[in-house]
Design brief:
2 copies of one chain form a homodimer. Chain A is an alpha/beta fold. In chain A, 26% of the residues lie in helices and 19% in strands. The first copy, chain A, is built from 9 helices and 20 strands. Chain A is globular, with a radius of gyration of 22 Å. Chain A starts with a strand and ends in a 7-residue tail after the last helix. Chains A and B meet through strand 8 and strand 9 of A and strand 8 and strand 9 of B.
Chain lengths: 451, 451
């Protein structure tokens, strides 16, 4: 096969792409030339924790939004790879909500079984892409950050797996310029330690606000106030966490809210979401989307309709994660290998419109789960990615939402059963609220003393 | 004149370039087509304060390292424009060390007299530059951040004035990953308020460490500890500020130093300098330099020797600032206009080597001042930028160093006399240590109550 595939990013999406090609190769089939470039110094994407904030060692905007003490906020049984189970990796049953280091270990475990690392160049950022209409190739300029050197590569296909939880969306509020305490976006939150005994204000009402709020409460913040724009998150908050309407303005160390209330705070954390940003792509090749379930430029949620040689993985709002990236990567692989023939552009457009129209009809989180389940079902049907019981995963997602609504402090103590190998999760040795040590070592201990 | 000049950045350097062309135009002379692009939403570069940290509204690495309560740390008489004095701008005599807003007003005052703004496109970042050997033109891809649109422009000359105090240099120290308090680079420091009653550790021994340390002390930090690598800053610190040798490692909230001492801290601020970074340039057009007085790729400190159509302004380590950028911009202008003929490359190389060798011989801050004075003297001699008494400015710089050594808390109460118009600065209405309000309004009040 004399063509070349470029992969940008070696996080869960880029690694899924490498794994997809590698599984093909293991069957004795030929694969094209592949190169993967990663801005960070290791693989794992968002799961590769860094203490840095803002920009990285070489001045690039930081990829990571990961923080200390982050535990999975959904059951691991919903994100399990269908070709590499948690039981296979750990050789034992573990709980349903592992911490970051454990999940990183799992992601790495699968990819380490392959020769994927040899395809990846680290500390190298995609700086600029041109598409040549004549040669039908992409020229990608990369920047080798360690050596301060730029170089070009040419590709027939380009797969973008750079994520969309890296570029903070940070609206302005009157008076925030002079707020006297700490101001940061969730992207730069690195753990609750810094906020022990502090009164903190979180602005936002999605996963970041919920999880950072609960983390800070757990690790000893004096009070946690969550300010929502439209709807409160709404679980039964314990004393010490409360929700208030949107901030109207700040004055000194004081924040004022729409309901006329106010409060004095030591820190404000903007949990106001992320922007999809692709600075290395010319705008006619850019995915321009908000966080939604079906970006309207992507056929099958993967193939850039204007130029199908360009693909994006993992750009959806996510219930499903690792196994969705896999399903997408396997689809992208089979398209690249010529096994999946794409219909004409207008046909593809119609298909996109059908899905987008379906998304418009969804209202509740349950609807969203069902939508994404159908999407993945369709993808998996077209490749040899090992199928799994999607209805059961959807049911677990729904149960997870109920668990959180019942008690946001204890939902991580629940256990689920793998649909991949029917392994039932263990109840963890320590209730989540009492477990302040999130290390892999501590997590895997069989008998522990509560510290 | 049928050629085109691109200017990247509308800070003090880019504005100097615009002003240089404009002063030529005012004399009735023709100038080439000019376009200037600025990443931020306003001009002023580093003097354009933002409350944001890390990345900006559109996810670009932030330019600004400016903080609340920043007052000039050198006498304004050393940075005065020779074609627009402080007296002319304010219509009165002011003190020698004005705060940020006052300096911004001064910079803006000069440029507002011209039609420079019409040449500038804001919120637009230079994304990628290619040089075409055949057409001898630069293709610059710009990214319109507001509209998420990219476009190309072609230039015969390119002037880079993007500064070099924007990309943090942040070394790793063992244990910093788990430091429990706040960790930031000086680039993200936005004012001392957040550190009132806190024990703070600054790592570094240059201007940032000195000034942030003094600011935090002034605004009420409980203690300020400054950790130096090689030499302490060394003034007679007041009780509450001390210097210690370099950090060896961190453990929890504790820092350990080379002399065996240790301390517990609420926050660590890395005052460890900046990197020169030009992500939009291919590496053969990149200035690769540390913070020095004579980057070895720049003829006359301005012209990129490998490709003289490319110029850099303000890339030196700086004693002189605004008037040095002016001297460079006037030089660049006259070269572009064909008034200054450059010698051959090898000759230019020799000239660079001569200056670099001179710099190597410098040892003390006084030597550095004399070096930069000579450099500027040479530049000014070649253009019509209004000459001024450089020896007297050099003497003021030296006195300023002595003043700081005598008392780092009171040196800003000293006054100097302008070499441009002999205006003697006023003693400010409030001693600097007692002045907690840095607004322009307060600064210009004639009679004040000490708050």
């Amino acid at each position: 096969m004399n063509f070349k595939v470029g992969i940008i990013g070696a996080g869960p999406s880029g690694l899924a792409m490498l794994r997809a090609f590698e599984s093909e190769q293991k069957k004795g089939n030929k694969i094209p030339e592949i190169k993967c470039y990663e801005k960070q110094d290791n693989w794992g994407g968002m799961w590769n924790y860094t203490w840095r904030t803002g920009v990285g060692k070489y001045g690039e905007p930081l990829h990571g939004s990961m923080y200390k003490y982050l535990w999975s906020n959904g059951p691991k049984e919903c994100l399990e790879f269908s070709d590499y189970t948690f039981s296979e990796h750990f050789g034992q049953s573990i709980s349903s909500y592992p911490p970051r280091e454990v999940l990183f270990d799992y992601i790495e475990g699968r990819i380490k079984q392959s020769n994927a690392r040899k395809y990846i160049t680290f500390n190298t950022v995609a700086r600029w892409v041109d598409y040549n209409e004549t040669t039908k190739q992409f020229r990608v300029v990369f920047d080798d950050l360690v050596n301060n050197k730029t170089f070009e590569e040419f590709f027939d296909y380009l797969v973008v797996g750079t994520g969309h939880f890296s570029t903070p969306n940070m609206p302005y509020f009157d008076g925030i310029d002079d707020f006297s305490g700490a101001v940061m976006h969730a992207h730069d939150f690195r753990g609750a330690d810094q906020f022990v005994d502090k009164d903190i204000l979180l602005i936002g009402s999605s996963y970041s606000a919920e999880d950072i709020g609960v983390q800070c409460y757990k690790h000893g913040s004096k009070s946690v106030t969550i300010s929502y724009r439209t709807n409160p998150i709404g679980p039964n908050w314990p004393e010490g966490i409360k929700e208030v309407p949107l901030v109207t303005h700040f004055d000194g160390d004081k924040a004022f809210f729409k309901d006329g209330s106010s409060g004095v705070f030591d820190a404000v954390i903007f949990c106001t979401g992320y922007q999809h940003k692709f600075p290395f792509l010319p705008d006619n090749l850019r995915l321009k989307t908000k966080n939604c379930l079906y970006p309207d430029q992507l056929y099958k949620g993967v193939v850039f309709n204007e130029l199908p040689q360009l693909m994006f993985l993992g750009m959806q709002d996510q219930y499903y994660t690792f196994n969705m990236f896999d399903a997408q990567a396997w689809y992208a692989r089979d398209y690249v290998l010529g096994r999946i023939a794409l219909p004409e552009k207008a046909e593809r457009e119609k298909d996109i419109e059908k899905w987008v129209a379906e998304e418009t009809k969804t209202e509740t989180p349950f609807d969203h789960i069902d939508f994404q389940t159908s999407y993945i079902r369709e993808l998996i049907a077209q490749t040899d990615y090992p199928g799994f019981n999607l209805d059961q995963v959807a049911a677990m997602f729904k149960q997870w939402i109920k668990d959180k609504e019942t008690n946001v402090l204890t939902y991580r103590d629940k256990v689920y059963t793998s649909v991949m190998d029917q392994c039932k999760a263990e109840i963890h040795h320590t209730p989540w609220m009492k477990e302040l040590d999130d290390s892999l070592e501590r997590y895997l201990e069989e008998e522990v003393e509560v510290k």
